[in-house]
Design brief:
- With 214 residues, this protein is mainly α.
- The protein is built from 13 helices and no strands.
- It has helices at 10-13, 15-21, 33-42, 48-61, 65-69, 73-80, 86-100, 110-114, 121-130, 142-151, 160-170, 176-189, 207-213.
- α2 packs across α12 (176-189).
- The two termini are 24 Å apart.
Amino acid sequence: MDLFGNSTDWAEKLKPIVKKYKGRKHPLDYHNLYQLMVMVVLSAQDSDANINKITPALFDAYPNMESLAVANEEALFPYISKVRNFGTKAKWLLEIAKTIQNDVNIPLTIEGLVALKGIGRKSANVIMREAQIPAEGIIADLHVIRVAPRIGLISETKDGIKAEKQLMQLLPKEIWSEIGMAISFLGREICRPQPKCPECPINSICEYYKKIKG
C-alpha cells in the first residue's frame, strides 16, 4: 500500500528511472573502496563537487588506510579544512583508520559499516551499492528525501531512516540496490527544487505533476 491507500506496483512504475540510471557511478569521484569510504564521510552536509575538488591532494598524502591510521588531526587539517565540520570529520576518519588498519578490512555489510564512526545507513548503502554488494537497504539521501514524497511514493519526512524504511516496505528487494540512486539522480538532474517536469521519464505516475497539470 502507498500513502494514499492504493495497492500500487511501484516497481513497475519506477522502471523508466531504474533503466535510465542503472549502474551509473556515484558523483563522488573515487577510484577504490578506501577513497569512497573517506569521501562519503567527508561529504556529510557538504557537496560532492567540493569533496571531489579537495580529495586528490588528501589521497596523494594518505593513499590507503595504513597511512591514514598513523596520521593525526593536525596533519589532516590542511587537506580538509575547506570541508564542513572538518574537525569532527578528521576525528571520525582517524578512528575508522585505526579500527580498520588496512583497506582489505573494510566491512561490506550494513552492520559492519554503521559500527564505524561517521557512517550512517545512507553512507553504508552508498558504499555497498558502489561495491556491487547485494543491498540490505535503500539509499535515502537529501534528493531521495525530497523527491520520493513529491512523486507520491512515501509521506513527507526529513528523517532519512524513516524515508528508507517506507521505501523498503514499498519496493521489492531486487531493486533496492539501484532505486535509491536512481531517485537521487532524478532529483539532481530533473526533479530539482524547481522541477523540469516535462523532461521527467516518470511524470505520468507522479502525484505532483498530476496536481500542477490540474
